[in-house]
Design goal:
The complex is a heterodimer of chains A (about 250) and B (about 160). In chain A, helix 1 crosses helix 3. Chain A has two domains: about 50 residues, no CATH class; about 180 residues, no CATH class. Chain A is built from ten helices and nine strands. Chain A is an alpha+beta fold and about 250 residues long. By secondary structure, chain B is mainly alpha-helical. Chain B has one domain: Butyryl-CoA Dehydrogenase, subunit A, domain 3 (Up-down Bundle). The chains are: A alpha+beta (about 250), B mainly alpha (about 160). Chains A and B meet through helix 1, helix 3, helix 4 and helix 5 of A and helix 1, helix 2, helix 3, helix 4 and helix 5 of B.
Amino acid sequence: MKPIDDDTLQAYADGELDAEGAARIDAALAYDEVLASRVQQLRALRAQLQALFNPVLDEPVPAHLSALLRPASLQAPTAATAFVAASARRGFGAGRRRTSRRWLVPGAAVAASIAVLAVALWWHGGNGLVRMHDGRQFAAGALSRALDESLASEPDPRASIAIGLSFRGADGHICRTFVHSSKPALAGLACHDAEGWSLPVLSAAEKTAGGELQQAASDLPPAVQAAVDARIRGEAFDARQERAARDAGWR
Amino acid sequence: MDSSQAVREGLLPLLPRLRRLARALAGQAADADDLVQIVLERALTRAAQWRPDAALDRWVFAIARNAWRDELRARGRSQNLFAPEEAGVTAADGTSAPAQTLDLAAALAALPPDHREVVALVLVEGLSYSETADLLGVPVGTVTSRLARARATLQAHLGKDT
């Protein structure tokens, strides 16, 4: 009988041999304990590697990854509801660097004048989303609840208010960007303090080319972007930090 | 159905396996998911190049392997994403893993890329030798010899502590 070389033994352990070849090894293993233990070792290593990595299969897939595969027509359920941090991180390992910001905006071109009017109506129209306190505007009602409770990492496609970035500002307060899927969509920045969620900035979504909802690589509305840039230090929260901040009451 | 839609729909159920492969290649969970993101973006960009008679999993795994190689090259490291001593390893389930498991992950991280990708494709993902050879563009004999050497290295590493 030919001696069994290492490559053949490995192929056997990995199930690569045809029936005839495998039968030959089977026969040899029956009386050769050394050979049997080598096969066992080859298979044990494979099993250990599987044990190390297979739990990944049971992990929930991060939403920002599965979102990339959603058809464009489903990416923004009703309007410009979701900031997408998904495509922001380029180059793995460099992922801790500050994220750039993309978000979804309605493709329908919105005349600037209408947008400004819409902001005014939204702001002062008695929709219950804004309250005044000491001359400052604060989130109220559904907006306040969304800021308190919603996580960007767990977007609710039915919600009319979607949360974007969350971060701790230079003054120590936590701020969150949001989009309200009114028509046209409106975006804003809310910062948490002792009085609740103050609203330093609110702005209409910018118009984009095209007539349908689409993922645009546009930045935040300039006013909101500027407000974020003025406050942010370091990075926006990742999913874990966002959840921890919520659990700590945004303090 | 256009190819882009077919690729999107086909990739969704492959995400867990793609993440597993990325973890085996890149090591750390955050790096692995960054890699997955790059891979998905490339796959969607190149969706027109995918032929329905080709297995989508191996097509996207090849993209993953090439993206990982690109990233290694971009970092200018010929061996590893991280030096072995900083290749902190996260157990897949986030809990502390047995010491031997961590040893194995560290040993895998220390393998040269040629060896590591063969281990990831054959022993973790479960591709056959010939599928792996096709994916890598090398002869089957090269796959088996790299696999044997990688195994010997891993086994020696584990053997030190047992």
